[in-house]
Amino acid sequence: MNKICVVGAGRVGESTAQFIASRDLCRELTLVDINEGAASGAALDIQEDGPLFKFDTQLKGGSDPELMANADLVIVTAGIPRKPGMSRSDVMEVNIKVTDEIVANTLKYAPNAMMLFVSNPVDILTYRAWKKTGWDRNRIFGQAGVLDSTRMASFIAMETGYSALDIDAMVLGGHGDSMVPMMRYTTISGIPVSNFMEQKAIDDIITRTRNGGAEILALRQNSSAFDAPAAAVAVMVDAIVNDRKRILPSVAILDNEFGCKDIAIGVPTVLGKNGMERIIELELNEQEQQDFDNSVAQVKKDLGILATL
To answer: Would you call 59 a catalytic residue per the annotation?
Structure first.
């Protein structure tokens, strides 16, 4: 990929830029933030570790949205973060306004780009951008399921003592308390996780996964998570840049998949050079369907609030 632009040079944005640059996923990477010094400082700081991480990506930063010009991919991390006790929906009104401005700038400076949303509430912001741009749904998607799934895989590794390298986890639904950890589709070296843990331990991991972001926020107090979210974004970018056709849970616009339409929510997707190239539909049992329907209802509730803004 020639050029990637990260909008938002806070902790998530800076870490995202670091991961992307260190993996040499593009020739040019720009950071845009309302705080010009934060963006330009982060860009220079990352540029200076190029000789150590062996990358040639050229970084620039600043507050001028023209830095987005001709980007192939715009990654949105800008907006206000959660504070302890806040839900992801609590930051929606402010972050909608931020997103609308970013979308307008993308249409002006990078009309052929794809957009990857990270800011919360990610399901709602992804949907809003899709509506604002009128683009095909493959060009606009969000990061949530990769992060939620890797959190669950980490918890399973911690509980069982087995290598995290052998654990494949899957989380669907909205990026919030109603997310749906799919234990039937979660394995250790291809073996269902239920072979290794009692139901009580599985239930505890499901609860911890749903509260994964809040747990880190409560511990840090002054910051939500940023390293794992940034790493999750880098995995998605790698799949797109290298046309890997990876199946990764992403926030996607549904068009009758899973019985839903006109909504953005986390589902298994195929990521390749064209962005979100396909949605993989899973056969859900009665409990999974109930949990997914509950998650859809929560996202629709937030979309109802969105309509009033």
So the answer is: no
